[in-house]
Amino acid sequence: QERFIEDLNAPYGMVICAGPTGSGKTTTLYSGLMQVNTPAVNITTIEDPVEYVFPSLNQIPISSASGMSFASGLRSILRQDPDIILVGEMRDGETARIGVQAALTGHLVLSSVHATDAVSTVWRFLDMGIERFALASSLRCVIGQRLVRRVCPECSASYTPTLDELAFFNGAGGDPLTDFVKGAGCNFCAETGYRGRIGVYELIQVDELMRAALIDESTTTEELLALAEKSGTVTLKAQGVRLVQDQETTVSEIIRSIYTI
What we know:
Blueprint: H1 2-8, E1 13-18, H2 25-36, E2 43-47, E3 58-61, H3 70-78, E4 84-87, H4 93-104, E5 108-113, H5 118-127, H6 132-138, E6 139-151, E7 156-158, H7 163-171, E8 181-183, E9 194-205, H8 208-215, H9 221-230, H10 236-245, H11 251-258
Parallel strand pairs: 1-5, 1-6, 2-3, 2-4, 4-5
Antiparallel strand pairs: 6-9, 7-8
Helix pairs in contact: 3-4, 4-6, 6-8, 8-9
């Protein structure tokens, strides 16, 4: 959280949330906005649709009827000289290019992309036609996230995972002495065995070493991930394993939520 807030207080750059639909990206972005929302800061959002209404923000909904897209709306916003811009999603190359340019010209840009994890976000931007140097110069941090279901505390009981689940868990670095639990199903969880959800996050900050790696065309996904972990990133996989060990969720739920997009 401290690293996230540090990037939110930067004078310019891009802060990106990555994950599938329904993983809580919009909630994370708005949580970030509330950390920097003061009367002295001009914040404008462009969304499809506006999911949370805040009187202190300038919020613009995308309208297909009027022909307003994320790209055209973003161009319009930049004429108003905002300090911080939230773009609901960077869906195409044009929106991404304008967002990167805004970040390079003194604006803090918050947005989301549909990507598997934080590292995959880099390739997503490159696929949208963003040049490596521009991406490396504009990107502050990327947050990969998921929502996993929590084991119901009312009907939680020990169990033995399947051989496939054990193979996955052990291969992901799990503790072989883990006491696995799952919900048997009860009235409190509508017989599902799960009650509530937990946010799982990985954050990659773009420091000088990461910036150099992004510019280098020979850098692989594995090298970016290793560099991120060396700088303190705890991956979604590692955090998922930790939640299983802490008896918060199940192996099958980690496989379903973190490895499916």
